[in-house]
Amino acid sequence: MLIALAVLAIADLVVGVSNDAVNFLNSAIGSKAISFKTIMIVASFGIAAGALFSSGMMEVARKGIFNPGEFYFDEIMFIFMAVMITDILLLDFFNTLGMPTSTTVSIVFELLGAAVAMSLIKIGADNGSFIDVINYINNDKAVQIIFGILLSVVVAFTIGAMVQWVSRLLLSYNFEKKPTWVGALFGGFALSSMTYFILMKGIGGTAFAGESYDLIGGITIKEFLETQLFALVGANFLVWSTFSFILMKFANVNIYKLIIGVGTFALALAFAGNDLVNFIGVPIAAWQSYEAWLASGVEASEFSMGILAKKVPTPTLLLFIAGMVMVLTLWFSSKAKSVVKTSIDLSSQEDTKERFQPNFLSRGLVRLAISLSTVLTNAIPSSLQEKIDKQFNKPVIALSKKKVHELPAFDMVRAAVNLMVAGILISIATSYKLPLSTTYVTFMVAMGTSLADRAWGAESAVYRVAGVLNVIGGWFGTAIIAFIASGIILTLISFGKGAALAVLLFAAILLLARNYISHNKKAKELKAEDSLNRAESSSIQGVIFESAMNISNVLKRTNKIYTNTINGLAKQDVNLLKKNKKQGEKLSNEIDDLRDHIFYFIKNLDENSVGASNFYINTLGYLTDIAQSLEYIGKVSHKHVNNNHKKLKYNQIKELKQIDLKLEEILNQTQDAFSNQSFEQIGNVLSQKQELFQMVSEKIQTQVARTRTEESSPKNTTLYFSLLLETKDLMTSVMNLLQQYHNEHDSSVAPATIESPKK
């Protein structure tokens, strides 16, 4: 069990860091204030320091949720095993989805679920009453933790929104042009709050913080930090404000970058100090339980675990090893980047590819917010409203200097506020010994600042609100799933003993391996796939080149999707048709994404190349028609086979295959022409247009005759005509696209002069 727990602890550290990296990386990466390498180095130092200072937090796993004196050694070990198996599977599941969840909530409800299940088993064996469960659970502490976590969601969102609104009102988006003293005061306030935060979460967690010193009035360092709050923060504010002014005035330092760097270190330290217990607290408690039982010489089923109620320090070596595992995971985990992306996308100031679809709740909340905004706007004098709006006006960014994907998700003011507010809230909660989830706080602060910063505009509000609701729903799902799953696993271990434990561990390893392989496979597929790229050139020549690459990719995928459809119908292969249908939908979504980018494309054009917009828009129109035809062909084919309708007749399949082979020949020639920029070949392809259309028309006439004389299945006739007519539409779109390129090539650019747009 101890060996298994040690292995699970390392695995839990890996999946835990992958999930919680969003807490401290979000603001720095989103603002692009400092380089990614610098961010990672700063965060690594923060994690290493926080891990060494986290000893005092380990008590949550030993006595924070249940009363250890009510359980025997073997029962405690069953609880710890159930918790670790559940935790690692649950966190890995959320990481695979790219959704941030709370490691604090998961460990709390897993401990609660396992402890309740074990209590019920003990009560059942003794013929006791269900109400006796309260004797086994540390009710006061458990309720305090749960309500503290839930309250932090509302408080973090509200405070984040208020502070961001005030900060933007004072600094506007032109914050770098403000007088030096304005930036110095902001820097003083932010850095002083973060310094206190680092002291509370760093020094406050060390062993010597509990010792008294004459220099500070004979009280402990921790008591001094908690009682001298205003004096410490006031002194810090004066020192940091002066320091900020000197740096800005004489060293030309960007104080906002310094704030973001210090804030990233502070939150990384807090994460390691506060959340390390979620990953290794249970295995360490199990090891300490084992040592106590071994020294007692009593049977495992008779040794009471009341010893866990005492304060037991955690060996520094174990904390150091845990810190190193966390740092390595931070650098090498691809899942961590996936979770960070979700949070950044939801708080982005610019339009992004929205991950979440709106629902009735998000639409209702947005409508309510619009109504309230209208009421408030009418209540505020128009002159004052104009002044406020002026501070929130975003500067126009010249896209010719920066590509859209290179723009930061939000500016440095919002990044600084995110880090500052999260740090203040966590340090206040720590000083009052209030438990909270660092994930909930940092995420909800980021969402609150996004709302106040008007990042959720008419274009994106319903998607962003839906995303936040999905994440919050996932948090509640975490609590419920953790409680139930942990209780079930505990029950299986309790009754099945070693055999059940072996099966569960084997199942956990299989699931983790499967998720890891699946995630890597998806990542490789995304990297290798012929995905479509947004046109970002500012000249007609560049647009022709970039569009040619996209068209080549679309035609390659069109060929594959169409052929798979015919093969799937011939073999009645429902799985192939289902997969093929998804590929058609995916292609359609990618082209929709290109259409959504038209606004930025037109903004990016040179004055002399505005005509390129018409060319690009027409190209996208033809690509859309191609994708819609493929999507329809895939959908009706899958529906026919999935509903177990009659198989198409041999002659029908043969005729469709003839069309497929001819279409494949034309698409291959066209793809080569676009891939190699040999646009003179397009004329050769266009000369075959009539032959292809004639072939389809003949098949339609043949099926009409067949229907009148021998066809007996209405469903087959409907499907066959649908395929032929949609194939005709597909070919029309392809030929129109080729004609446009052929005309543009003849009238503007010789093949030899077309070059790749400069990077």
TrEMBL record:
<feature type="transmembrane region" description="Helical">
    <location>
        <begin position="142"/>
        <end position="167"/>
    </location>
</feature>
<keyword id="KW-1133">Transmembrane helix</keyword>
<keyword id="KW-0812">Transmembrane</keyword>
<feature type="transmembrane region" description="Helical">
    <location>
        <begin position="179"/>
        <end position="199"/>
    </location>
</feature>
<feature type="transmembrane region" description="Helical">
    <location>
        <begin position="254"/>
        <end position="272"/>
    </location>
</feature>
<feature type="transmembrane region" description="Helical">
    <location>
        <begin position="229"/>
        <end position="248"/>
    </location>
</feature>
<comment type="similarity">
    <text>Belongs to the inorganic phosphate transporter (PiT) (TC 2.A.20) family.</text>
</comment>
<feature type="transmembrane region" description="Helical">
    <location>
        <begin position="103"/>
        <end position="121"/>
    </location>
</feature>
<feature type="transmembrane region" description="Helical">
    <location>
        <begin position="316"/>
        <end position="333"/>
    </location>
</feature>
<feature type="transmembrane region" description="Helical">
    <location>
        <begin position="499"/>
        <end position="517"/>
    </location>
</feature>
<keyword id="KW-0472">Membrane</keyword>
<dbReference type="InterPro" id="IPR001204">
    <property type="entry name" value="Phos_transporter"/>
</dbReference>
<feature type="transmembrane region" description="Helical">
    <location>
        <begin position="438"/>
        <end position="456"/>
    </location>
</feature>
<keyword id="KW-0592">Phosphate transport</keyword>
<feature type="transmembrane region" description="Helical">
    <location>
        <begin position="40"/>
        <end position="60"/>
    </location>
</feature>
<feature type="transmembrane region" description="Helical">
    <location>
        <begin position="468"/>
        <end position="493"/>
    </location>
</feature>
<protein>
    <recommendedName>
        <fullName>Phosphate transporter</fullName>
    </recommendedName>
</protein>
<feature type="transmembrane region" description="Helical">
    <location>
        <begin position="72"/>
        <end position="91"/>
    </location>
</feature>
<keyword id="KW-0813">Transport</keyword>
<feature type="transmembrane region" description="Helical">
    <location>
        <begin position="412"/>
        <end position="432"/>
    </location>
</feature>
<dbReference type="Pfam" id="PF01384">
    <property type="entry name" value="PHO4"/>
</dbReference>
